[in-house]
Specification:
Layout: H1 11-50, E1 58-63, E2 70-77, E3 80-88, E4 96-99, H2 105-126, H3 133-154, E5 188-195, E6 198-208, H4 219-227, E7 242-243, E8 249-259, H5 264-291
Antiparallel strand pairs: 1-2, 2-3, 3-4, 5-6, 6-8, 7-8
Helix pairs in contact: 1-2, 1-5, 2-3, 3-5
Length: 297
Amino acid sequence: MTTAVYPHLPPAQLKKEEDDSTARELSWLLDSLQETLVSLKSGLEECYALLAPIEPGSTLVMSSPRSESVKGHVTRVGTRIVKGTLHLRLKTLPHTHISFTPHLPALENLRDLLNQALDCVDITRWTGDRHSASYISSQLRLLHSILTSSLSLLSPPSTSSTSQPPWTTTPTPASHSPPPNPPYPPNLSLTLTPSAGALILTVRILEPVGVGAEPSLGLVTKFAFAIGAQRRLEHDEMEGVYVLGGGERVRVREKVVVESSADPMMLVLGAKLGALERTVEAGRVGLGVVCGEEVDV
């Protein structure tokens, strides 16, 4: 079955009718996108509210599965951890009880990105030419980029052990353990990052490495492994040499990764941001189809 226009139109007139139809469709789509922008602003404001410092916050359990290596909890209020308590029973560290309040730079950056997204929506609605397809397209591309970056902060990619990961430039926060509890050991590194509706705690025990030293095991350590006197603590960063912020070269002697219990607010935030990102992507694709342009998503 074929579709044809009857009565038949001359080619020039047919082209004019097609252009007029495309112009009407484009005009309707641009008006529709203004309504979409209003909905996006409302959704972004809801996401921003989920990061507001409202008590009592979310108390999350930190417990290593099938072992007593890490036990404790943290309380998140907004973008900060206001209370954290950990009991550590690691193989290369004496039993340690610490209280700490680490920073969550990922959530602070996420809040800044949400502010940028809200500004982008307001600028798109109230400045520039709302009937210009190229202007709206560029603004949607910017908004999509901001939302994609926001989602990446909630589920950051894993870091290769051969590169210098972010934890090397993020100092472990000072201990807030009340007296007579001593500060925790200087070779202890703690990082806390958001991931898929929870918080990931990474505990590392560091050992210094001399300049020019290779990341191979020492002779005594190899012999201890061979006779079974010492068990090799295998992890993904065991062979790397890392440079800390002060220039000190270290190896990661022991590493334990613990995922907290689910954070309801973070789960809702991730779902809402994902829905907003897909809405903007759909708007970009629709606008590209009408304008005859290919959209990279």
